[in-house]
Amino acid sequence: MVENVNNYLEFYQSDRLASGYENGATAVSDEITDETKAWATVYLGEGTVDEYDGNGSFSDYLLSYEGQSCIARMEARQSEIIAAIAKLGIEVTYEYSYTTLVNGFSAYLSYKDMDAVAAIDGVLGVYEALNYEVCSTDTVGSASMAFQNTGIFANDSEYMGDGMTVAVIDSGVEYTHEAFSVMPTNGAMNLDEVEKVLQLTNAYKNYKGSGGGIGGIGIIGGGATKLKSSQLYYNEKVPYKFDYADLDDNANPSALTHVSIASHGTHVAGIITGNSDVITGVVPNAQLFVMKVIADSASGAAFTNICAAFEDCAVMGVDVVNLSMGSVSGFTRSYSSTAAYENSVMEKLEKFGITVCTSSGNLNNSSHIVNEEGTGYNNLNWTSNPDNGIVTLLLPIPLQCR
Ligand SMILES: [Ca+2]
């Protein structure tokens, strides 16, 4: 595993240098060794979505005796594996306990120990978390320029997002921004609904005030301060916000984060659901779920955080998930068991009925790669050349998230 990772790192760095492309906010880790630690998912099997028969709402099923029993069985299995890991004397930090899309948990441990954990009876896989970076955001002189130049705001249809919920899984959103100041009509999510599912969410189970750690409340037991639904609910436009990276209820982008990353989530959320005098998004009447998955101190999001947000989208019945992350080539299909695992989780969301939108690249592309003569770019991706299959650099890359 380590050798593969280092090969990717080497290729990535050399290609990046050759392209002359630099993103000041992006850090590449030093060489990875057996002792290097990374976030990973310890996968034990299918989640509750696979047990749900489709009758009634999913949250009602989870709250039923049957659903609760199913969750308890999975948590018991996880506790057994955690005990087995402890027996091996492995140094590990746990965070999320997953029961919705998969049965498993996130763990921070060395590459060497990932192999040891994978060998434990009952562990079906250990997948290091890919780290997805957001692209830097450019600023234009005026909003009207963005309208004219990109066309990305255009929606000539009759569908304005009425009654729909869209989750923006990103660097956080400045939800007090005037772009989100007009309240939607017929919003599907309200404070009562948030309250109903509160204790089913990874947000609740891992809220820092609850002690954090794996299943902050479910498995290991938490602290004295429990998360309240009123901390998740902001208003009718933003009925849900949580920071899955720093485990708190402030999903605003951090001032500590590089500005081009911090502003990314707001930029994306504005395009999708903005509704003000200046900006009209694609679905201005939709409700916005803000799910921050990039830590204040990081430039990318580990899949272990993203998966926690995905699970809560399923629990709350979100209609659309947007994931405008793509470093380095976005969500690829084939290169590793990790990519296959992460794709399978997203496919589960899709099968469950949630539309998942991801960027097909979002960071660099073949047009940026300098030609052999070093005199210009290859320019392979122009619209005049639609048959070029490459939209970005060719590989996702595992980096340590934090
Ligand atoms: Ca925060």
Helicity, in percent?
Answer: 25-40%
Measured on Cα atoms, how large is the radius of gyration? 21 Å
Average pLDDT reading: 80
β-sheet strand percentage? 5-15%
Number of strands: 11
Shape designation? globular
CATH superfamily of the largest domain: Peptidase S8/S53 domain
Q: What is the tally of helical segments? A: 12
Structural class: alpha/beta
Q: Record the strand order, biggest sheet.
A: 7-8-6-10-11
Structural domains: how many: 2
Biggest beta-sheet profile: 5 strands, parallel
The unique ligands bound to this protein are: calcium ion
Q: What's the CATH C level of the largest domain?
A: Alpha Beta
Distance between the termini: 20 Å
Low-pLDDT sequence parts: 15-28, 215-221, 393-402
Care to describe what's here?
- The protein has twelve helices and eleven strands.
- The strands form three sheets. Strands 7-8-6-10-11 form a five-stranded parallel β-sheet, with helices on both faces.
- It has helices spanning about 1-20, 60-65, 65-85, 110-120, 145-150, 190-195, 200-205, 230, 260, 265-275, 305-315, 335-350; strands spanning about 35-45, 95-100, 100-110, 125-130, 130-135, 165-170, 240-245, 285-290, 300, 320-325, 355-360.
- The protein is α/β, with parallel strands linked by helices and about 400 residues long.
- Helix 11 runs parallel beside helix 12 (about 335-350).
- The chain starts with a helix and ends in a 44-residue tail after the last strand.
- The structure holds calcium ion.
In short:
With 402 residues, the chain is α/β, with parallel strands linked by helices. The chain contains twelve helices and eleven strands.
